[in-house]
Amino acid sequence: MATTDPVPKDSVPNDFVPAGFEPPRSLTTDRFRLEPLGPQHNEADRAAWMSSVEHIRATPGYPDGSWPRPEGMSLEDNLKDLTRHEAHFEAAKGFTFTVLDPRDNDVIGCVYLYPTKEEGHDVSVQSWVRASHADLDGPLADALVAWIDADWPWERPYRYGR
User: Fold this and answer.
1) Domains of the chain in sequence order
2) Radius of gyration over every alpha carbon of the chain, rounded to an integer in angstroms
3) What is the pLDDT of residues 131-144, one digit of tens each?
4) CB 110 within 8 Å of CB 35
5) How many Cα atoms occupy the beta-carbon half-sphere of 56 within 13 Å?
6) Could you give the CA distance from residue 126 to residue 141 in angstroms, rounded to a whole number?
7) In angstroms, what CA-CA distances link 133 with 31, 55, 93, 95?
8) Long-range pairs for 23-29 at CB < 8 Å and ≥24 separation?
9) CA dist 23 → 4, 28, 104, 126, 147 (Å)
10) Whole-prediction pTM
11) What is the DSSP letter of 78?
């Protein structure tokens, strides 16, 4: 007989960040700018990752090859995904940022800061950039380490071998 969880997952207390913590909403460098990912990024986000499926799958942190799906997804399904990430951000259950080119504000990647099950770590840090911006993979990952150290409550990020 199947059982169901009597407590809806969205009502489970959040201990990912301290109560009252106000998450940073941007990071700006001369090569990229981060802002919270949301539905307003739908078309540009989908275009970014669909243009770079193989590059993303080869990026540290995406080892199982399940994302992105080679066949892509519809704009409607991508919008649902962005809406989910936005809700997680507002509930402080995870923080997803779009990576923008500061010259034209085009989406060139994404950053995910989520709880991790990796022993000895307190946050999972994943990022990807478009294949056309592959030279930003390392600088973005390095900037995230400094940003987490300076502005976030975590001390032991899990960086997927970076």
Assistant:
1) 26-158 (3.40.630.30)
2) 16
3) 999 999 999 999 99
4) no
5) 23
6) 8
7) 10, 10, 29, 22
8) 23/89, 23/92, 23/95, 23/152, 24/147, 24/151, 24/152, 27/97, 27/143, 27/147, 28/102, 29/102, 29/139, 29/143
9) 33, 15, 25, 17, 11
10) 0.89
11) H
If pLDDT is split at 50, 70 and 90, which confidence band does 5 have? very low
Q: Which residues of the chain form beta strands (DSSP E)?
A: 27-28, 33-36, 95-100, 107-114, 123-129, 157-158
Q: Which residue has the tokens 């080679």?
A: 70
Which tens digits make up the pLDDT trace of 105-123?
999 999 999 999 999 999 9
Q: DSSP code of 146?
A: H
pLDDT, tens digit, 9 for 90 and up, residues 14-35: 689 999 999 999 999 999 999 9
Residue written as token pair 């990022």 = 127
Non-local (6+) Cβ contacts of 22 within 8 A are none
Percent of the chain at pLDDT > 70 equals 90
> Helix, strand, or coil here: 95?
strand
Cα gap 37→16, rounded to integer Å:
19
Tokens 């539905």 belong to residue: 39
